[in-house]
Amino acid sequence: MSQVEEKRHLYESNEVVTDKGFVAPDINSFGNSFRDYNAESERQKTVEEFYRLQHINQTYDFVKRMREEYGKLNRAEMGIWECCELLNEVVDESDPDLDEPQIMHLLQSAEAIRKDYPDEDWLHLTALIHDLGKVLLLPQFGERPQWAVVGDTFPLGCAFDESIVHHKYFKENPDYNNPAYNTKYGIYSEGCGLDNVMVSWGHDDYMYLVAKNNGTTLPPAALFIIRFHSFYPLHQAGAYKHLLNKEDTENLKWLQVFNKYDLYSKCKDQIDIEEVKPYYMSLIEKALHDVMNSVQPRADPKDPAKCVPKASDPKTFFFFLVAANMFLAVKNEIPPPTAKHL
Ligand SMILES: O[C@H]1[C@H](O)[C@@H](O)[C@H](O)[C@@H](O)[C@H]1O
Ligand SMILES: [Fe+2]
Ligand SMILES: [Fe+2]
After folding, report:
1. Which residues are Fe cation-binding (predicted)?
2. What angle do the packed helices 246-264 and 121-129 form, to 10 degrees?
3. 131 exposed, middle or buried (CB, 10 Å; 0-12, 13-18, 19+)?
4. Considering only 148-157, 260-269, 297-306, which range has the smallest mean pLDDT?
5. For residue 106, which ligand has an atom nearest its CA?
6. Which of 17-31, 51-65, 270-284 is predicted with the least confidence, judged by mean pLDDT?
């Protein structure tokens, strides 16, 4: 079997896309079910207050302003690992399941996905970087309040779906009573594609802009995961599907695989950072060439979302494109993971 055939065979077999051992724990490290936003606890009070502020303050205009401002990518230059280490300083007040330093969460999710998908190094790297946008909380990135950085995300410019956590607090959002924004479609149309939808601002969109405007060679599914991993109303509740286009629907399957590792790997078991560091450093060097380096000149100030690719090492480019195309073209249907193995 040639190498390409071998890969194709791997992608076609269910084993690649269903998990082979990751058993979802029943309870989180606080002894509650995962994502139980109604549990009676001190932690939940903080989480609920977080969502009250988030739902009042995230408006269409706010997101537009943030995308323009942060799309310039003029905040800092740093390597990916350096950025992971910076997250040691960050606590996420929206998360009912985790109070570990964020670097631990990055490594826990990356190691969990690596165990079940040993050959998909693009997924390992995606897991490692998916939450890096939380640096928005730090002074050198503008010290944004928690409600502008973390928590689940949702679209602006159309009605807030009932499935959004603590939906009741939207009543005080100025967009709630705006007739242009409060219908099912609002300013959008059937199948318009998520790329055209304004989603609440936070670490997801920021990291997406950073990766894209640095000309990353990660596959489209990786960028989709980074950009929409907090969009639980879509990937968990199935809301807003009328806005997806074909490519989104394809990418969503990978996001749903990723989500299990993002969510259920949150636990008290510590990863030995120094032990796994060389592996992730090799991935960073191979695929991203430290994409956070010299970010400013590559962003297009007129259109922050526009990709201004940098010259890539042809080998790296080749590796990721081949892998990505095979995933998306060969595998039309990703079977859902079995109930037991989440
Ligand atoms: O509280 C969590 C946390 O902020 C995660 O990083 C985010 O991706 C989730 O969607 C959110 O619920
Ligand atoms: Fe996240
Ligand atoms: Fe995460």
Report:
1. 105, 130-131, 203, 229, 262
2. 70
3. buried
4. 297-306
5. 3
6. 17-31
What's the alpha-carbon Rg for the chain, to the nearest Å? 19
Report how far residue 96's alpha carbon sits from residue 79's, in angstroms, rounded to the nearest whole number.
29
Q: Helix, strand, coil: what percent of the chain each, to 5?
A: 55, 0, 45
pLDDT tens readout for residues 93-122:
998 877 778 889 999 999 999 999 999 999
**Surface-to-core class of residue 307, CB atoms within 10 Å of its CB (0-12 exposed, 13-18 middle, 19+ buried):** middle
Token pair of 277 as six digits: 């560091």
| C-alpha to C-alpha distance for 106 and 80, rounded to whole angstroms | 12
Cα(179)–Cα(332) distance, integer angstroms = 39
Look up the pTM and report it.
Answer: 0.80
Closest protein CA for atom 10 of ligand 1: 230
* Contact yes or no for 49/253 (Cβ under 8 A): no
pLDDT, tens only, 305-329: 444 434 333 333 322 322 222 222 2
Q: Which residues line ligand 1 (CB under 6 A)?
A: 92, 94-95, 131, 150-152, 229-230, 232
Residue 249, CB-side half-sphere exposure with 13 Å CA sphere: 10
DSSP count for the chain of H helices, then E strands? 13, 2
Q: Which two structure tokens, joined as six digits, stand for 100?
A: 């570990």
Say how many Å lie between the CA of residue 149 and the centre of ligand 1: 9
All residues at 6 or more sequence positions from 296 whose CB lies less than 8 Å from its CB, including other chains: 72, 73, 74, 77
